[in-house]
Amino acid sequence: MINVLGKILLVVFAVIIIGPLLIVVFTMFKTTPEFYANPMGLPSSFSMHNIETLFTRQPMWTYFKNSVIVTLTSVLLVLLLAGSISYAIMRYGKHAVGGILFSLFAIGLMVPSQVNMIPIYSMLQRLGWTNSHMGLILVTVSVLLPLSVFMLTGFMKTLPKEILEAGEIDGAGEYRLLARIVFPLCAPYLAATSAFLFVIVWNDLLFPMLLLVGKDKLTLPLALLQFRGEYMTDYPLLMTGVLVTALPMILLFIFLQRYFITGALAGSLKG
């Protein structure tokens, strides 16, 4: 009875997830009049007209390039800084310094990023970094650093101390231990964290909307707002943009699925 109930719940959950996705996919192949006439129905023909229109009306490749630059740079910087900080906390966790450092980053998780919008904008405006990818990247790194440190510290505490002690006996310093031993051993955890961060940064709308103004600087989520009309919205074109924006995340999960699941399970079972 329990197994049957579990399967029914899984089917219901799958329908809840797949249903809206199918509506988005079907909408992509519709014309605007066809969508407003029958929003939930099947398209009359599976035409690629909306995809062609999307890339001819808007500089989608520029938006895509901006999103890739901001996302990859932010994720790499966060992993490098958070990995180094987590290693220090793991190594000196028994001392007061390690505990205080971890507590400071844990407190950073309690502060909503929306609270800091006005101070962040004022500071970047004085520095002349508004409407620039560098300013957006620095803000993104600072906002995601507490979460990444919290995640990676829990992962690194599962590493066997004997391996680090053996490295010390061989004469390896802290930087060499971090680069040659800790980071390679934490590859599944780093991959899991990077996939998590990639989704957050790629889909971020708050800080790009706050900091970016020029059309040549827009990221994909912010560019999608341009498809809204004052009196009518071209939903087929908007849904096409949503699918194009989501495609890199889908590919990322397919290629990093093994590392993502391994890292998530390791962190949950060995915490």
What would the keywords be for this entry?
271 residues, mainly alpha, MetI-like fold, 76% helix, 0% strand, disordered C terminus
Notes on the structure:
The structure is a single chain. This protein is 76% helix and 0% strand. With 271 residues, the protein is mainly α. It starts with a helix and ends with a helix. The chain is globular and about 70 Å long. The longest helix is centred in the last third of the chain and has 35 residues, at 235-269. It has helices at residues 2-28, 32-37, 49-57, 60-91, 96-108, 117-127, 133-156, 161-169, 174-185, 187-203, 206-211, 220-224, 235-269.
Short description:
The protein has 271 residues and is mainly alpha-helical. The protein has 13 helices and no strands.
CATH level 4 superfamily: MetI-like
Taken together, the total number of domains comes to 1
What is the arithmetic mean of pLDDT?
84
Q: Say what the CATH topology is.
A: MetI-like fold
What Rg is obtained from the alpha carbons, in whole angstroms? Answer: 23 Å
Low-confidence stretches: 267-271
Number of helices: 13
As a percent range, the share of helical residues equals: over 70%
Q: Main beta sheet: strand number and arrangement?
A: none
| Helix-strand string | HHHHHHHHHHHHH
Provide the β-strand percentage band. under 5%
Shape annotation: globular
CATH architecture: Orthogonal Bundle
**How many strands in all?**
0
Distance between the termini: 33 Å
Which CATH first-tier class would you pick?
A: Mainly Alpha
What class, by secondary structure content? mainly alpha
